Amino acid sequence: MNIELRKRYGIYIHVPLCRRRCDYCDFTSYVTTPEIRGRVAVGLLKEINLHPETRGRTLYIGGGTPNLLGVGELGDLIARARDRFRLPLGAEVSIESNPGANSGLGYFEALLRAGLTRLSVGFQSFNDGELRMLGRLHRSVDTDIFSSARRAGVRSISIDLMYGLPGQRPEDFSRSLESALRVGVDHVSLYALKLGRDTPLGLLVARGELPPPDPDAAADAYYASLDHLEAEGFLQYELSNFARPGHRCRHNEIYWEAGYFIGIGPSAVGDDGEVRRRNTPDLEAWLGSVEKGEKPDCDVERPTPAQRRMEMGVLALRTRAGLSERRFSERWGVGVVQAFPAVEEHRAGGRLELSRERWRIVREHQLIADRILSDLAD
Ligand code: SF4
Hints:
Blueprint: E1 4-15, E2 17-18, E3 30-31, H1 34-50, E4 54-63, H2 71-84, E5 93-97, H3 105-114, E6 118-124, H4 128-134, H5 144-152, E7 156-163, H6 170-182, E8 187-192, H7 200-206, H8 215-231, E9 235-238, E10 241-243, H9 250-256, E11 260-264, E12 269-271, E13 276-279, H10 283-291, E14 298-301, H11 305-317, E15 323-324, H12 325-332, H13 336-339, H14 342-348, E16 352-355, E17 358-361, H15 369-377
Bound molecules: iron/sulfur cluster.
C-alpha cells in the first residue's frame, strides 16, 4: 500500500442529504429517504477505504445535513477516518448540522464519545419571515440543538447566519445576531446571500415578486456585526469568520493556508498540492462507483504554479493574519507587488495596507474584498 506520510491533510467528508431543499440552495444535496441515507453512509465508508493511508490533521463532516445520519453511522465514519488518515489524538473533528434533524442530548453525548470536538449549526436567521422566505424548515424558537450540544459538553459551537436577504433591514440582521449570541456560541460565520438564478428564491426576485437584496443594507448589517462581535470578545480571523479565543476552525484554516486536503463524498474536493480532484456531484453516479469498490468519477485539474501563487495570495488576504511578504517571496521567488501589480493601486487607494511585512484588506473595504481579490487574479 502506498503510504503518504510526508504531507498532512485536512479531511472533508460530504454528506449530500437534506430533509428538503432550501429555496436558495445551490450546494450538492439531495432530499433523503431512509434507503438513500443507508447507502450514502456505507458509500462514504467505502470511499474512505479506497484512499491510501495518509496523515490527517483535522476531520470535517459537512453537508447537506450530516445530523440526518444516525449516531452509529456518524460514529463509524469518524472511526474509519481516524484510522485511515491517522488523525492525531485530540484532532479537531467538526460536524455540520441543521435544526430539525438529530439533535438530542444523547445524540451529542454519543458523538462526543466518537470524537466530536466542534459543532457547526446552519441556523441562518432568527427571523421567522426570513426563514420562511429561505425555505428553511426550522423556526427561530428551534434552538434546542444549541442547548443539548452544550449540555452534552461539545467544546466549540458555531452558527451560520445570512445577511443581504431580500427585504432585510440592518436592524433585522442585528436582532438575529443578538439572538445567536444569546444561545451561547463560540464561533460565528456570516454569509452574504448569493442569489443563484436557478434557485426558487432567485426566480422570485427575477420575476419581481421579491425585492432584490439591498447592497447598502447588507453593508450596514455587515459592518455593524463586526463592531458587535468584537465588543462581545470575538476575533475576526477571516472575512466571514469570527471566533472567541481558542475556537477558530482549524480545518478551514487549512484551506486559507493553501494546505493539503482530501475530499470524500459527492462533489467533495481534494488537493495534494499537485493534483486537484473534484468528485462527481451526481449522487447515483457516485454511489454506483463506490458500491462496486471503485473510485468515483472526478474532474482532475493540475493548477499551474502561477495559479497556485495567485490562490495562495488571494486566500491569505482573506485572513486576519494577512499575506506575508516574506513567506510569499521565499516560496515563489518574487515579491507580492511583482506577482500582483494591482496591489499597488489598491494600496494607493487605501483598500490594502502593508504593515509589519503583512498585506491585509483595510476593514472599511472588506465588503468589496471579492472585487479587490479578483483584480489580483487578472
Ligand atoms: S440545509 Fe444547506 S445544503 Fe441542505 S438544502 Fe438547505 S442550504 Fe442546501
